[in-house]
Amino acid sequence: MDTEKRNTETNEAPRQDNEPPLGAGAEYAADAAEAAEADAAAQAAEDAAAQESVEELIARLEAEKSDLTDRLLRAAAEAENLRRRAARDVQDARRYAMTKFATDMLQVGDNLRRALGAVDEKAWGTEDPELKALLEGVQMTARELERILERHEVVMIPAMGERFDPHRHQAMFEVPDPSVPAGTIVQVAQDGYMIGDRVLRAALVGVAKGGPTPDKAANQAPKPEAQ
Length: 227
Prior knowledge:
protein homodimerization activity, Protein GrpE, stress response, chaperone, GrpE_head, 3-stranded mixed beta sheet, Nucleotide Exchange Factor Grpe, Chain A, domain 2, alpha+beta
């Protein structure tokens, strides 16, 4: 009897000290599942944070791109404006460089016209070849001077019969004349000239007074009859 008992005890497998007790496997499995879920949640949070960081980076880069594009367009516009301004300055310098010279030449033209205006009408029909050649020479010189001035954009300002313009005309006196609208130029004492779009010399004129104002004159003008 004792021998069988000893044999039975001898046949039982020895129990290891670190072996978990029976029924502990389910607890270990639950802990492992919880740990896996925690790791998955942490990884998901990291992925979300990384995705958010990428989106923020893209948004920041897009904003910087927009800002740089705007600066580039502004710089290009400023450069174009500077180029146009420089070209205009060069053109104005070329056009108006002869302003002083042209002003002096106008006096030469004035003297030629005065000389021609002082000639008696009978002298134009003279048979004297020398006098005739002299008059024709002065007349041709005056015309050639006008052509040269026009070639350099120096043109006469319209005055006679025009409405007075203080930017181009200088009123020297008034002429009572009720037959024309007030402010109409009826006499020209000295021709005016422009160079390009600038007034080189204002025309010295006499202006009518006593007539209707330009607005009233326009209203009093006869209207065309209906057909």
